[in-house]
Every structure is written in C-alpha cells, then in structure tokens.
Automatic annotation (TrEMBL):
Record's keyword terms, sorted: Iron, Metal-binding, Monooxygenase, Oxidoreductase
InterPro entries in the record: Cyt_P450, Cyt_P450_sf, Cytochrome_P450_monoxygenase
Entry keyword Lyase: no
Membrane-spanning parts: none
Source organism superkingdom: Eukaryota
An annotated Gene Ontology molecular function: iron ion binding
Record-stated family: Belongs to the cytochrome P450 family.
Claim: 4Fe-4S is one of the keywords in the record: no
Lineage, uppermost ranks: Eukaryota, Fungi, Dikarya, Ascomycota, Pezizomycotina
Named cofactor requirement(s): heme
Protein name per its UniProtKB record: Cytochrome P450 monooxygenase TRI4
Organism of derivation: Lachnellula suecica
Length: 254
C-alpha cells in the first residue's frame, strides 16, 4: 500500500491517505454518494448520457465510420462522473472525436504511474515546476496542468455558490458530490480548495478509466461470443415493454 499510495502525487486525496482514521474520515465525506440507493437516484442522468452515446453510435452506423469504444466509453463515464460531482459536466459526448487527444493523454499519464511507483521523486519534481514551464516542457503536462486547474476551479465554484446561498439566506443545494463534501462536519482544513481538488482528481480519474475499460472488455466478449449476445438480447427483451425502452436498473440488478 505504501508503495502505491503516492503514485499520483495527490497527498490530500483519500487514495493517498495512509493513517487509518484520517482515511476513513475522508472516505466518509463522499462514499455514501456511491451506494446502491444513490446510484438508483442517478438513473435519469445515466439514461440521458447513454442515450446521447447511442445516438452518436447510430449516426456512425449509418455512415460506416469506425468508432473507438475506448474513447466513446471514457467520454460517457467522464460526462456522468463530472455531472454528478460538479455543476459543470465535461460534455465529451458532444465533441466530434470524444475529445480523443485529452483521453489519450489521460491514458499515457495513467501508464506513467508504474514508473512513478519506483521513482516517486519524478512526479514531485514535475509538480514543483511553475505552470508555465510545465506547459512548455511537454504537451501532456500542459493538459495535466489544465486538468488540475480545472478541478480546483470546479471546487471553487461550488464553494462560492454555497457562500452566496448562505449570504442570501437560501438553502444550499446538495445535488452534487462536492456540495455535500463542503457541508460535511469535518475540520475546515479538510474542505480546502487544494484538498478537494486532489479528491476530485482521484474520484474522476479512477472512476473514468476503470469503468470505461470494464465496459470495453464486456462489449468485446459479448460480440466475440454470439451465443452470449443472443442470450443477453433474450434476457433484456423480458425486462422492458419494447425494444426502444431501456430496462430499469432495478430489473438489471436481478
């Protein structure tokens, strides 16, 4: 665990937190948002984003244009996670190439963590660089800096919105993950912009890459095994009232 904990150089994120009690406290700030009950409440958002992806795939089916499922699924998951965590979604499904360059940069950064496990000083050196210098050194670093700044700005927007609501006597919204985290009864240091930006990068990057990979792998094996595809179609047909209607999550869980 100690070997892997600092490979993302996000010391304030729950993934990198070694002390047991502190780790549990940080996890408790957002873990309830990913329970089964919480996911069921997300069903309208999930359907909305999946429908957008299906519309994109349908348009490419008509033109015969090949689609990278890695890019498509990563865009899908990124849009869902960011819409759930923040006021503003990435909206990558609306980008013609699913923001291919950004997603491939994320992949390269993720692969680089294997080296960073053995040479942790590398990531700390890169993080110590001024932003202008990091942008100049390598295009991937430029995008990484922009991403980190973006997470900090998202957290700042949530924080400012809450402050304005409190000043006006309005009730603060609790719809987004980071709205709830800022409302948690924890020391103020646990709700700093830097710490929550680290947590944001941890949640978004971890959920995005792993889920997209699982979806891509499942899709391949279903299509590569026709008997599995036939059985899946038969099973799904019993869960909805028609081919155009998606089965509800409660039915899929069974």
């Amino acid at each position: 665990m100690f070997f892997q904990a600092d490979m993302f150089a996000l010391p304030s994120g729950s993934f990198s937190t070694i002390p047991h009690d502190l780790h549990r406290r940080r996890r408790a700030m957002f873990s309830h948002h990913f329970s089964t009950a919480a996911v069921h409440k997300l069903e309208p958002l999930l359907r909305e984003k999946v429908d957008l992806l299906l519309a994109r795939l349908e348009s490419t089916r008509e033109t015969g244009e090949p689609v990278s499922l890695w890019h498509a699924y990563t865009a899908l998951v990124a849009d869902i996670i960011t819409a759930y965590c923040f006021p503003e979604s990435y909206n990558l499904l609306a980008v013609p190439d699913y923001s291919k360059q950004m997603l491939e940069t994320f992949t390269r950064i993720s692969l680089g963590t294997h080296m960073i496990k053995h040479c942790p000083w590398m990531i700390h050196l890169l993080r110590a660089l001024p932003q202008w210098l990091a942008r100049w050194v390598h295009p991937d670093l430029e995008l990484l800096v922009d991403m980190q700044v973006g997470f900090a700005n998202q957290v700042l927007k949530v924080k400012e919105k809450r402050a304005n609501s409190n000043a006006n006597g309005d009730e603060s919204e609790q719809g987004h993950v980071f709205d709830s985290m800022l409302n948690a009864e924890v020391p103020e240091s646990e709700k700093s912009i830097e710490r929550l930006a680290h947590e944001a990068q941890t949640v978004v990057m971890a959920g995005m890459m792993t889920t997209a990979h699982s979806l891509m792998t499942i899709t391949y094996h279903v299509l590569a095994n026709p008997h599995v595809l036939v059985r899946l179609i038969e099973k799904l047909s019993t869960m909805s009232s028609g081919p155009a209607e998606a089965a509800p999550l409660s039915a899929l869980e069974k």
